Amino acid sequence: MFRLFLTPGWFNGYDLLFESIALVVAMLIAVYSWRVYSLNKDNKFAYFSLAFILVSLSLIFKMFTQGVLYFFPVRETVAQVLRPAVGNGLEYADLFYRAGFFIQMASMLGAWLLIFLISQKTRERLKKYFELSQIALFVYLVLLISVISNFKYVVFYLTSAVLLGLIVLNYYKNYLNTGKNNAFLVMFSFLLILFGNIFLIFVYLYNPLYVIGEVLILCGFLLLLYTYRKIVKR
Amino acid sequence: MGSRRSRLELVFDVLLAIQNKGGKIKPTHLMYKSNLSHKLLNSYLEELIEKELVVIEEEPVKKKKRPSKIVRITEKGLGFLAEFRRMREFTDAFGL
């Protein structure tokens, strides 16, 4: 069985619940941002919506791949029954997990990268040719990192943490510029997600850190949900 | 110098000027409050009337035989203002 790292057994399933909550939050923000785009036709809202669609996609693939892994005994029994019929084909089962983790990582890194680029205060960004070529380069790096992370998972969380650090910095600047409470809450949400990712880097040393990392990421998404509700319920 | 207002922001400014005057305003006052030329204001008003965000009414004036025209914001217009405020809050919060 292919695994990126070992997680505490008692926590299996709880993380799926956490991801499903994060998924709902990401989809709500994606839908609202798309609604704003349909009103003002400003591209940055479409990109922001796309970023949260990528977060949702990543969470869906994480839930699916992890879910199959957690039901390993069932899967193994089925594999034993099917082995005579399938034969050597079962040896390629790892490819399924690798593909699942690859899509999870590529879409999550792509989402953080897009949010970072959008939160940069440059006028007319994403329209100029050289900025688009920069994005093409970043996309290549994101895909490369996602492939490497399948063999050394730390690379994914490390890259994720770096991008989230840059996002937090941009949101801190945004908070200083606007001085608004909601801007502070958004910055703090991403800070929690950043801390969660930092804990996940060190899971290979001590696997209960996975629980702390997941709880922090959940808190980040819940705070995003609170901020979103605060804005749309005005 | 401030940046140019988008079309949506201009619509917001026009509707806000009406709301701040208690929901109805004279076209001349609206022109000054929203900082628009007469020609531009008329083109925006036409669009707002078409979209049912405002209505033009006639109001009797003392000492004058002819009633004067006023622009009144509709429920739909008030809804647009609320939606625009939410949109702006979202934009500010997420640094967009």
Number of helices of chain A: 8
According to CATH, the homologous superfamily of chain B is: Winged helix-like DNA-binding domain superfamily/Winged helix DNA-binding domain
Per the CATH scheme, the topology name of chain A is Rhopdopsin 7-helix transmembrane proteins
Helicity of chain A, as a percent range: over 70%
Helix/strand/pairing category of chain B: alpha+beta
Strand content of chain B: 5-15%
User: Given the C-alpha coordinates, what overall shape of chain B results?
Assistant: elongated
This entry's quaternary arrangement is: heterodimer
Q: Please, how many helices of chain B?
A: 4
Strand order of the largest sheet of chain B: 1-3-2
* Secondary-structure arrangement, i.e. CATH architecture of chain A: Up-down Bundle
Helix-strand pattern of chain B, N to C?
Answer: HEHHEEH
Secondary structure class of chain A reads mainly alpha
Residue-averaged pLDDT of chain A, rounded?
83
CATH class of chain A: Mainly Alpha
User: Quick one: CATH class of chain B?
Assistant: Mainly Alpha
Low-confidence stretches of chain A: none
Number of separate structural domains of chain B: 1
CATH topology of chain B: Arc Repressor Mutant, subunit A
Walkthrough of the structure:
The complex is a heterodimer of chains A (234) and B (96). Chain A has helices at residues 14-40, 43-70, 72-86, 93-119, 129-149, 154-178, 181-201, 209-232. The longest helix of chain A has 28 residues, at 43-70. In chain A, 80% of the residues lie in helices and 0% in strands. Chain A is mostly helical and 234 residues long. Chain A has a single domain (9-232), classed as Rhopdopsin 7-helix transmembrane proteins (Up-down Bundle). Chain B has four helices and three strands. The longest helix of chain B has 19 residues, at 75-93. In chain B, a hairpin with an 8-residue loop joins strand 2 and strand 3. Chain B has one domain (7-91): Winged helix-like DNA-binding domain superfamily/Winged helix DNA-binding domain (Arc Repressor Mutant, subunit A). Chain B is 55% helix and 15% strand. Chain B has 96 residues and is α+β, with helices and mostly antiparallel strands. The interface between A and B is medium-sized, with 25 and 15 residues.
